Amino acid sequence: MSEGVTTASSVRNVDGVTERAMHWLVLGGNRIAVAGVLVGVIVAVFFLLTRFGVLAIGPGSAAASAFASGLISGTVTLVTIALSINQLVLSRVFGSPNELSDQLGGTRDLRRTVRDHAGEPAVPNDPAEFLNLVAETLTERANHLGSAVDDADGDRSHAVTDYAEGIAAYGESIAERIESQTAIVNVLAVVLGTEYAQNMTATEHFRNEYGDRLSDDASAELAAIDDLLGAIAITRQFFKTLSLQQDFARLSRVVAYSGLVALVASIAMALVYRPDSVTVPAQYLPLVFSLGIGVIVTPLAVFIAYVFRAATIARQTASVGPFVPPEERSESG
């Protein structure tokens, strides 16, 4: 193949402590755990600031009015936003019979394509097992393509071998990272990079360069590889839709629950303050104040945790097929 047109033999790996921590924070980690970490950091910061007298929280401070007005209104606003998100999710799951029929037909076409190339009577319903079948079939077809070319055919044989080995290695790298019955977001994370697009471009170049000189068997294997790479591209977008819909549905529910608790905590913290005193012993006030802040900001922390993941997924799956924005290429590198 010509210079600059190569296959991607492996999906993106997350290496290094910092990169793993960022991956856990914005994508891979449980969103409730991420929110818990954010709340813990906020509580610790406020506790230290109040303990060392940087923040005034005693009688006569602005803490009472902050709890009574600003934080209560902020909590109510955030819960309203969560309910709006819930309405958005609901609007996406409803549809007319024609729309639902088109969606079902598209899903069946995708599954039929994978089933035919895999030679299986049916394909799995589990997302992880489905993608694993696609990856294993892709590897198998690439190996068959490499075996279908005469070794004595010089440059063409080397080009076919290089291409087939790259595609086979790509399929193997996907299969190695997939765990059965895992969360759909973890399945999506395996193919979140742009390697599929690079391989689609390499396949198009290879077909145009050598397609007319391939045997019928080799041409059939190449067509199957192209279909399977397309299946990965479509599956990637479909899993994105499912993952975001599930996350937004959970977000609205968790924010509604935590928002109610935060509202009660705001009212309770406001009532702790009297005109010239507080109902809590002075030595415990920094801890009570910090924990109260933690409870109140919990809905916001949950919201931020889910937005981290949604924004990351949306940014890295903006394109379908070989058109890849520079932002996706840089983040996949």
UniProtKB/TrEMBL annotation:
The keyword Transmembrane helix applies. The keyword Membrane applies. Keywords: Membrane, Transmembrane, Transmembrane helix. Pfam families: DUF7972. InterPro entries: DUF7972 (IPR058278). The chain crosses the membrane at residues 32-57, 63-85, 254-273, 285-308. This is Uncharacterized protein. The lineage of its organism: Archaea, Methanobacteriati, Methanobacteriota, Stenosarchaea group, Halobacteria.
